[in-house]
Design brief:
Blueprint: E1 2-7, E2 10-16, E3 32-38, H1 42-50, E4 54-62, H2 65-76, E5 80-87, E6 94-98, E7 108-110, E8 132-136, H3 147-158, E9 162-166, H4 172-178, E10 187-188, H5 192-199, H6 204-212, E11 218-222, E12 228-232, E13 235-239, H7 252-265, H8 270-285, H9 297-301
Parallel strand pairs: 1-4, 1-8, 2-6, 4-5, 8-9, 9-10, 10-11
Antiparallel strand pairs: 2-3, 6-7, 11-12, 12-13
Helix pairs in contact: 1-7, 5-6, 7-8
């Protein structure tokens, strides 16, 4: 089953645990530092590959060392990276994340080449040939918000592809722009804050219902440690989070998307697919970085036993 991930590609540098930034030239000794492929497209692509999917990733990165490292990491995981276009005028998007002892993750971020992604990066027929297409962060790759690209999405759906969408930011203007994609996707997976900002509804069930009315067949609102809400035309269901010791929440949303998509590609209904997503997110939360702990599908599903 082929999944195309399309959108934000970021290189993350993570350190843990960090309780504060030292003054002057002070040094803090931490337990671990990692570099990972991240972002709502790249992070999801790696998680999907670990869960046994054939993955093609499409995005824009810089013609720089950061981009070289990001390509190396993704290719090593088995992701087809030929859809990544290199930009000479922009650096690869990157984040530095000092992870707090409780798993919180403030960040220092450069948007970089993600802002330059345009529809011409998508190869002819690529989406139509896929089993699933994941839009990862169209709020920050807003060049895709083009009628011609939306027509390509519709053609992919007509050809049998399932289209999912996740967001990256919490900036109201960017989220408003991403709303244009809602009539063209099957399953939308925002977090609680994004859903509230897009709808003005603080109640996540009401927010899910409002988003559902804009076009998707399913809206899954992730609630962090409170689990998630799966809303369809038949009603809303709340799924609890799995009880795990949280080390770092980076990439939990991307892992949830990967588990959810994997469930769909295995013929599961949306509620069971969301359970797979819950297990994938719980796996990642127990380690450092967006791919932490993910080995294979069987290990993830063992959490549900």
């Amino acid at each position: 089953m082929t999944v195309v991930t399309l959108g934000a590609h970021i290189l993350d540098v993570l350190a843990r645990p960090v309780e504060g930034i030292p003054d002057g030239q002070g040094t803090v000794v931490v337990e671990r530092i990692r570099v990972t492929a991240a972002g709502a497209a790249a992070g999801t692509a790696v998680a999907l590959a670990r869960l046994g999917n054939e993955v093609v990733s499409v995005g824009a990165i810089g013609a720089d060392d950061l981009g070289d490292l990001l390509v190396t990491i993704m290719a090593r995981e088995g992701v087809d990276v030929r859809g990544l276009v290199r930009r000479t005028a922009e650096q690869t998007s990157a984040s530095i994340l000092p992870i707090r002892p409780d798993g919180g993750r403030p960040s220092f971020h450069v948007p970089g080449a993600n802002l330059t992604l345009a529809p011409d990066a998508v190869g002819p027929g690529l989406l139509e040939a896929a089993n699933a297409v994941h839009l990862g962060g169209p709020d920050v790759t807003f060049g895709l918000n083009d009628p011609a690209f939306l027509a390509v999405l519709d053609a992919a759906r007509e050809a049998g592809a399932v289209v999912t969408m996740d967001l990256l930011s919490t900036m109201p203007d960017l989220l408003d722009g991403a709303a244009a994609f809602l009539p063209h996707v099957d399953h939308f997976l925002p977090n609680e804050e994004q859903a509230a900002l897009m709808t003005g509804e603080d109640d996540p069930e009401k927010a899910a219902a409002a988003l559902l009315a804009r076009g998707p067949r399913t809206v899954v609102v992730t609630l962090g440690g409170e689990g998630s809400i799966v809303a369809t035309a038949e009603g809303a269901h709340r799924l609890p989070a799995l009880p795990v010791e949280v080390v770092d929440t980076t990439g939990c949303g991307d892992a949830y998307c990967a588990g959810f998509i994997t469930g769909l590609t295995h013929g599961k209904d949306v509620l069971e697919a969301a359970r797979w997503g819950t297990a994938a997110a719980a796996t990642v939360a127990q380690g450092l970085g967006s791919d932490a702990g993910l080995t294979d599908l069987d290990a993830v599903l063992a959490l549900l036993d």
